[in-house]
C-alpha cells in the first residue's frame, strides 16, 4: 500500500552537478591516524553502531569523530569492493570515508545485516537507523542497480541511485526485538550493495514512535544558515541526525552568536549550531509558508501520513515588553491548542499530534498580539509507516538461530526472518501465517548434519513435521521431542543415532498419531523394552579396544570389566580410549548448546568463567578461557588433546575442549559438591569433619603427585588452591584446572615462563622472584592448602590487619608450640591431634621459603599416609601403585570406583 509512495519518495540525492561546486581536497584512502587506532571504545560514541560496508579495517573517521567498523560482525555474505576514485572525488567529503568502499551481494535474494544494539534492561528501545548507498562504478559497468531495502520484515525503500550520486535514507524505529535486521533484496534489476549502515540510540520521549510503526525521514533542515555544502551531524548533534541547510525564497535569514540555553528540559537536543540561525518573514502580517511538494518538486502519495517537527528558539533580543507569538497550521489544521510565545534562547519543539495526510503544507504566522514576525529555526518531516508485517514468533526465531549455529548451517537464504516475507522463507521450512507466523515444518534431510539432534528443535513448539533423515547425527533421540504436541511426522532415519526412542513417541506412532521413520540407525533401539538399559550407556563410557567392546553393553558386563581391570592392575591401560574419542573437540555452537547458551554460571576463575552444561546425561562444567592461548591453535589442540587423556581418580576428568578462533573452552566433568574453598568457608551446607578433611588432603596430594611423576612430560599445575580442588558426590577431592599452565605457558623445556600464573597468597615467593617454574612451586601452594584445611581459615586472613596464613600459623606455634589454637575451632576438638601435628609439619615444610628445602609431592603423599592408619579412610587405594604409569592414557580410574 505504501510502496508506491515510498518508491517515489524523495531521498537525498546529490548529483554530480551539485557536488561539483564543492571544493574537495582528495584525502586518498588514508590510513586512520595511529593515535586513534588504539582502543577506541563505546565511550567514544556511546551506543552507536557504525558500519563502513566493505572496509578492510575498523577506523576512527576523523571527519565525523565516529568510529566505524567493518562488516565482519554483522553479516556473513557479500563481497567487498572499492568505488572509483573519480566518484570519491566528486562526492561530499563530509561523509568521510564511507563512500570509498561498499559491499555487494551477488548471491541470494535477500542478504541481511544483524544489528544488536545495547540497551539497558527495562528501557524502551528506540533507534535512528541510516543506510547509505554510493555506487561509484565499483563494478566497472557504469550502471547503478536498483533494489529494495527492508527493515526486518518490512519494506523500507527502493534504492535507486544515479551512477554518480549517492543516497541515504533514515528510519526511526522502536523495535520489539533485541536485534534489528536490515536486508537488501534483489529484485532482478542489478546486484544490491551498501556503503554504510548506522544505528543511533534515541531518547524514547522524542518523536512519536508507536509500536507497529516507524518514521521514515523525508527531510531535516537547518534553515537560515549560510550556504554550506555539508551536513551538520555528530558531534554537534548527540543523536547524529544529519541536518541540511535550506534556503527558501521570501525567507529572511537571521542569526546570533550566542548559544541557546541548553539547561532547560529540551529533550530534542537540536544542536546549538542549528538553532543559532533562523528565518523570519518580511513583516508581522506575512506568513512563513512552505509547501513541501512545490519546494522539492515531488509528488507525495495522497494516502501517506506525515509528522512535521518545528524547532524554534528566539534568537533576537526584543525590546522589553515586546513578544513574538506564533500560531502554526499544517495542512490547514491548527496544530497548537493555543499560540506560543517564544522565550529568548529557549528551545522549543512543536509537532502535530495526529499525523497529517496526503501533503505537507505549513504556515507559521504571527498572531495579532505579536510584536514581531514569525520565525523558524529548523524543521523535520517524517512519513509515518504503519501496518507493519509481524515477524515470526520470537521463540521460533531463537530456536532457528540456535539450530543454524549448532549445525553450522550456512545457506544463503537462511538470513533475516525465517518465515516473513513469505517469498523469502528459509529453505526447508514451512510456516503458518497467523498473527505471528509460526514454523510448522522443518526439513533438514540430507544436509550433512553432524552432532546430535539439536535440543533447540524441541523449542519449535508448533512443529508438525520434522525431517532430519540421512545425516550423520549421533547421540540420543531427545526426550523433549515428545513434548512437541502437534508433531505428526518425524523422520530421523539414516543417521547414527543410538539409545532408544522416547516411549511417548513410540506410543504415538503405534496409535497412528505420529508417522515415525527411524530406519538406518544401527544402534537405535526401536522398542520400548530397551528403554532402561540403554540409558546406562553414556557417550563417555570407556572401552577396551581389542579386549572388550563396551560400546553398548549391559550394566552387568560393565561391572565385570571393572573387576577385570582392577585385577590386572591396568596392564593394558594404554589400549584404552573413549568410545567417543573423536568427540573431544567441540565446536563453539556445540558448546553453546551444551551450556544452553551459557545459561548458568557455576564459577569464575583466573582462566575464565565456568558454566554448567550437559552432554547427553553427563553433567559438565565448561570453562571458557578468558584469554586465548599464546601458543598457536595447533598447539592448544595438541595440549588439550593430551589433557583429555590424562585420567586419574584424583583429577577432574577433562572431557573435551573447544578451539574456534579466540573461543577456547575446556569441558570437565561436573563435580556436584563444588570446591574446597566454599566448603571450608562455612557458607556451604556440609561441614567437613576431620576425616573428610584428611581424605581431601590426601586425595589432592595424590592427584598432584600424579601430575608431577605420573605424567610424561610432568605437568606443573601452577595454580594449586582450595578453589581448584573440587569435591565429587562422595566429598572425594579431585584436582581441577591441571594442565592449564601447559596450555598457557610457552616455556618449553627451560621452565622459564613469561607470564607468572597463580593466585595471590598461593604463589611461591621464589618462583615469583626468579620466574623459574618447577614442581616445588606446586608443593608450596599445596602447603598453603593444607594449612587452610587444618585451620579452616583463608590464605589471607581478613582481620583488621591482613595476615598471610603462614605468618599466622607460625606466630600461633611460636607462642606455645601447641597446635590447639591452630586447628579449626569448628571441629570442636574432634580431631586426631598427633595426625594434625604431622599435617602441620608437612604443611610448614611445603611452604619453606627455599624450594630445595621443600619435600617432593611423593614425599608428601608418603608422610600423609603415615599419619593415618590405612583402612581407616574410605577405600583410598595407595597412591602411585594404582596410578597409570607415565605417559600412558587411561580412562579407567574415573570409573574404577
Ligand atoms: C549572520 O548574519 C550576518 C548579517 O546578516 C551575516 O553577515 C552573517 O554571515 C550571518 N552569519 C551566519 C553564521 O549566518
Ligand atoms: C537557562 O534556563 C534555566 C531553566 O529554564 C534558567 O534557570 C537559567 O536562568 C537560564 N539561563 C540563561 C543564561 O538564560
Ligand atoms: C508585508 O510584506 C509583504 C511582502 O513584502 C508586503 O506585500 C506587505 O505589504 C507587507 N505588509 C505590511 C503591513 O507591511
Ligand atoms: C488524524 O488524522 C487523520 C488523517 O489526517 C484523520 O483521518 C483522523 O480523523 C485524525 N484523527 C484525529 C483524532 O484528529
Ligand atoms: C491560530 O490559528 C488558527 C487557525 O488558523 C485560528 O483559528 C486561531 O484563531 C489562531 N489563533 C490566534 C490567537 O491567532
Ligand atoms: C524433506 O525434503 C526431502 C528432499 O527435498 C524430501 O524428499 C522429503 O520428502 C521431505 N520430507 C518431508 C517430511 O516433507
Ligand atoms: C496416541 O497416543 C498419545 C500418547 O499416548 C496420546 O496423547 C494421543 O491422544 C493418542 N492418539 C490417539 C489418536 O489415540
TrEMBL record:
Secretion signal, residue range per the UniProt entry: 1-30
Domain Protein kinase: 596-868
InterPro entries hit by this protein: Kinase-like_dom_sf, Leu-rich_rpt, LRR_dom_sf, Malectin-like_Carb-bd_dom, Prot_kinase_dom, Protein_kinase_ATP_BS, Ser-Thr/Tyr_kinase_cat_dom, Ser/Thr_kinase_AS
Gene Ontology cellular-component annotations: membrane
Keywords: ATP-binding, Kinase, Leucine-rich repeat, Membrane, Nucleotide-binding, Phosphoprotein, Receptor, Repeat, Serine/threonine-protein kinase, Signal, Transferase, Transmembrane, Transmembrane helix
Alphabetized GO MF terms: ATP binding; protein serine/threonine kinase activity
Sequence intervals crossing the membrane: 536-558
EC number(s) per entry: 2.7.11.1
Keyword Kinase attached: yes
One Pfam family of this chain: Malectin_like
SMART domains according to UniProt: S_TKc
Major localization listed first in the record, in broad terms: membrane
Class of this enzyme: transferase
Subcellular locations according to the entry: Membrane
Catalysed reactions, semicolon-separated: L-seryl-[protein] + ATP = O-phospho-L-seryl-[protein] + ADP + H(+); L-threonyl-[protein] + ATP = O-phospho-L-threonyl-[protein] + ADP + H(+)
Official protein name in the record: non-specific serine/threonine protein kinase
Amino acid at each position: 500500500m505504501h510502496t508506491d509512495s515510498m518508491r517515489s519518495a524523495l531521498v537525498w540525492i546529490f548529483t554530480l552537478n551539485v557536488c561539483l561546486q564543492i571544493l574537495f581536497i582528495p584525502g586518498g584512502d588514508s590510513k586512520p591516524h595511529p593515535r586513534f587506532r588504539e582502543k577506541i571504545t563505546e565511550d567514544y560514541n556511546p551506543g552507536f553502531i557504525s558500519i563502513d560496508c566493505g572496509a578492510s579495517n575498523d577506523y576512527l573517521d576523523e571527519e565525523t569523530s565516529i568510529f566505524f567498523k567493518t562488516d565482519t560482525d554483522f553479516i556473513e555474505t557479500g563481497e567487498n569492493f572499492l568505488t572509483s576514485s573519480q566518484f570519491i572525488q566528486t562526492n561530499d567529503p563530509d561523509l568521510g570515508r564511507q563512500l570509498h568502499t561498499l559491499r555487494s551481494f551477488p548471491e541470494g535474494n535477500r542478504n541481511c545485516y544483524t544489528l544488536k544494539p545495547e540497551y539497558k534492561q527495562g528501557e524502551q528501545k528506540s533507534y535512528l537507523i541510516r543506510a547509505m548507498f554510493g555506487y561509484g562504478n565499483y563494478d566497472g559497468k557504469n550502471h547503478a542497480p536498483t533494489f529494495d531495502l527492508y527493515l526486518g520484515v518490512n519494506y523500507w525503500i527502493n534504492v535507486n541511485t544515479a551512477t554518480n550520486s549517492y543516497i541515504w535514507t533514515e528510519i526511526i524505529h522502536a523495535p520489539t526485538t533485541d536485534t534489528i535486521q536490515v536486508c537488501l533484496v534483489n529484485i532482478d534489476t542489478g546486484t544490491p550493495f551498501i556503503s554504510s549502515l548506522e544505528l543511533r540510540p534515541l531518547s524514547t520521549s522524542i518523536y512519536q514512535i508507536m509500536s507497529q510503526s516507524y518514521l521514515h525521514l523525508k527531510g531535516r533542515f537547518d534553515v537560515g544558515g549560510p550556504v554550506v555544502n555539508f551536513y551538520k551531524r555528530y558531534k554537534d548533534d548527540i543523536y547524529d541526525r544529519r541536518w541540511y541547510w535550506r534556503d527558501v525564497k521570501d525567507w529572511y535569514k537571521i542569526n546570533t552568536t550566542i548559544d541557546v540555553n541548553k539547561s532547560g528540559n529540551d529533550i530534542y537536543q537540536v544542536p546549538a549550531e542549528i538553532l543559532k540561525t533562523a528565518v523570519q518573514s518580511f513583516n508581522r502580517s506575512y506568513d512563513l509558508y512552505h509547501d513541501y511538494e512545490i519546494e522539492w518538486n515531488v509528488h507525495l502519495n495522497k494516502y501517506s501520513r506525515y509528522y512535521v517537527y518545528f524547532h524554534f528558539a528566539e534568537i533576537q533580543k526584543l525590546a522589553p515588553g515586546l513578544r513574538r507569538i506564533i500560531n502554526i497550521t499544517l495542512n490547514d489544521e491548527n496544530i497548537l491548542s493555543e499560540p506560543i510565545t517564544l522565550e529568548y534562547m529557549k528551545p522549543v519543539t512543536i509537532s502535530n499530534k495526529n499525523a497529517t495526510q496526503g501533503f505537507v503544507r505549513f504556515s507559521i504566522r504571527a498572531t495579532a498580539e505579536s510584536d514581531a514576525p514569525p520565525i523558524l529555526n529548523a524543521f523535520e518531516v517524517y512519513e509515518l509507516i504503519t501496518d507493519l508485517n509481524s515477524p515470526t514468533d520470537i521463540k521460533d526465531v531463537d530456536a532457528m538461530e540456535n539450530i543454524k549455529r549448532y549445525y553450522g548451517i550456512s545457506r544463503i537464504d537462511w538470513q533475516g526472518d525465517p518465515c516473513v516475507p513469505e517469498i523469502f522463507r528459509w529453505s526447508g521450512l514451512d510456516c503458518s501465517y497467523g498473527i505471528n507466523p509460526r514454523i510448522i515444518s522443518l526439513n533438514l534431510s540430507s544436509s550433512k548434519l553432524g552432532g546430535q539432534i539439536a535440543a533447540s528443535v524441541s523449542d519449535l513448539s508448533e512443529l508438525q513435521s520434522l525431517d532430519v533423515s540421512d545425516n550423520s547425527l549421533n547421540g540420543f533421540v531427545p526426550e523433549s521431542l515428545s513434548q512437541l504436541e502437534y508433531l505428526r511426522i518425524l523422520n530421523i532415519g539414516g543417521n547414527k543415532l543410538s539409545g532408544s526412542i522416547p516411549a511417548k513417541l513410540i506410543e504415538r506412532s503405534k496409535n497412528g498419531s505420529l508417522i515415525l521413520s527411524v530406519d538406518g540407525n544401527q544402534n537405535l533401539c526401536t522398542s520400548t523394552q530397551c528403554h532402561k538399559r540403554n540409558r546406562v550407556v553414556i557417550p563417555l563410557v570407556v572401552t577396551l579396544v581389542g579386549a572388550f567392546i563396551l560400546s553398548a553393553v549391559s550394566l552387568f558386563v560393565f561391572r565385570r570389566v571393572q573387576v577385570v581391570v582392577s585385577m590386572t592392575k591396568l596392564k593394558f591401560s594404554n589400549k584404552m580410549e573413549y568410545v567417543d574419542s573423536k568427540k573431544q573437540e567441540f565446536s563453539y555452537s556445540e558448546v553453546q548448546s551444551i551450556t544452553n547458551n551459557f545459561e548458568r554460571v557455576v564459577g569464575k576463575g583466573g582462566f575464565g568463567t565456568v558454566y554448567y552444561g550437559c552432554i547427553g546425561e553427563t553433567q559438565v562444567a565448561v570453562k571458557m578461557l578468558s584469554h586465548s592461548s599464546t601458543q598457536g591453535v595447533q598447539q592448544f589442540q595438541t595440549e588439550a588433546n593430551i589433557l583429555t587423556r590424562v585420567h586419574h581418580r584424583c583429577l577432574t576428568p577433562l572431557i573435551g575442549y573447544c578451539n574456534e578462533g579466540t573461543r577456547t573452552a575446556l569441558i570437565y566433568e561436573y563435580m556436584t559438591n563444588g570446591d574446597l574453598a566454599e566448603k571450608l568457608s562455612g557458607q556451604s551446607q556440609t561441614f567437613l569433619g576431620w576425616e573428610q578433611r584428611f581424605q581431601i588432603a590426601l586425595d589432592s596430594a595424590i592427584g598432584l603427585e600424579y601430575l608431577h611423576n605420573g605424567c610424561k612430560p610432568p605437568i606443573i599445575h601452577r595454580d594449586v588452591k582450595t578453589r581448584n580442588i573440587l569435591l565429587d558426590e562422595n566429598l572425594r577431592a579431585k584436582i581441577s584446572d591441571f594442565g592449564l599452565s601447559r596450555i598457557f605457558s610457552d616455556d618449553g623445556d627451560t621452565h622459564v615462563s613469561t607470564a607468572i600464573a597463580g593466585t595471590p597468597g598461593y604463589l611461591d615467593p621464589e618462583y615469583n622472584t626468579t620466574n623459574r617454574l618447577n614442581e616445588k612451586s606446586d608443593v608450596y601452594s599445596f602447603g598453603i592448602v593444607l594449612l587452610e584445611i587444618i585451620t579452616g581459615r583463608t590464605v589471607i586472613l581478613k582481620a583488621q590487619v591482613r595476615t598471610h596464613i603462614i605468618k599466622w600459623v607460625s606466630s600461633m606455634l611460636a607462642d606455645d608450640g601447641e597446635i590447639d589454637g591452630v586447628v579449626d575451632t569448628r571441629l570442636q576438638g574432634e580431631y586426631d591431634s598427633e595426625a594434625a601435628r604431622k599435617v602441620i609439619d608437612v604443611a610448614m615444610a611445603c611452604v619453606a621459603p627455599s624450594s630445595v628445602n621443600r619435600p617432593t609431592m611423593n614425599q608428601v603423599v608418603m608422610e600423609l599416609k603415615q599419619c593415618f592408619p590405612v583402612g581407616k579412610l574410605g577405600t583410598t587405594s595407595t597412591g602411585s601403585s594404582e596410578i597409570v604409569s607415565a605417559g600412558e592414557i587411561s580412562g579407567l580410574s574415573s570409573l574404577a570406583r
